[in-house]
Structure formats: structure tokens, C-alpha cells
Amino acid sequence: MESPSLEFNLPDIHEEGKLYVVDSLNNLNKLNVCPAESQHSLDEEENTGGTGESMAGSNTRNQCLLFITFILTLIISLTLVSFVIFLIFQTRNEVDQISSRLLSEKKNIEELKILNNIILKHLNQSRIK
């Protein structure tokens, strides 16, 4: 008796697609069977040949990279905050200067109004005479 064959004779261009589908199904099966944490350890075991010899080294390296990233982020954040504070002080100084100029100009305008009124009164009195 002849047993049915499980292989199909398709052209070679479909072989890569079939391998991709089988690989995707295997990955999906691993995700359904194993939780995320154990899947990560299974993938690392596959990459290291099941010995787990580089797992401690990569874990330490990942922690070191995370720490360096955290420190760099902290330094950049502090730099940006200090720059913003500097800009706030600069802006406050400029606003103070402008407001003092405006106050002095307001005083000058009031003095000019008073002088204008005095001149107008004097002119009105001289016309009457």
C-alpha cells in the first residue's frame, strides 16, 4: 500500500512563502502555549543552544544600557530645564526694562500735557488782552 504523501509539488517560488507561513505558525503556537516571559527565555535558549551561558551577560549589558540611557535622559532633561529657567530670567529682565521705559515715557507725556495746558492758557489770556 502506498501512504499518502504530505509534500506537494509546487513551483520553487512558493517554497519561500510556505516556509514563511510555517515559521509564522510556529511563532504563533509558541505565543499561545508559552507566556511572554517564558517565550523570551525560550528564544534565548534557542539562540545560545540551550545552555543559557550568555543570558547573564546580556542581562547585565541590558541593565547597563538602561542605566546609561536613564542618566543621559536625566542630564538632557536637566539641561533643558536650566535653559528654560535662563530664558525666563532673561525675559523677566527685558520685561522689567520695557516697563520702566514705559513708566518714564508716561511721566514725560504727562509733563508735556501739563506744559501744553499752560501754553494754551497763556495763549488764551494773551488773545483776550
Automatic annotation (TrEMBL):
Name of the protein described by the UniProt record: LSME1 protein
Keyword Ion transport: no
Species of provenance: Helopsaltes ochotensis (Middendorff's grasshopper-warbler)
PANTHER family, alphabetized: LEUCINE-RICH SINGLE-PASS MEMBRANE PROTEIN 1
Keywords: Membrane, Transmembrane, Transmembrane helix
Segments crossing the lipid bilayer: 64-89
Originating gene: Lsmem1
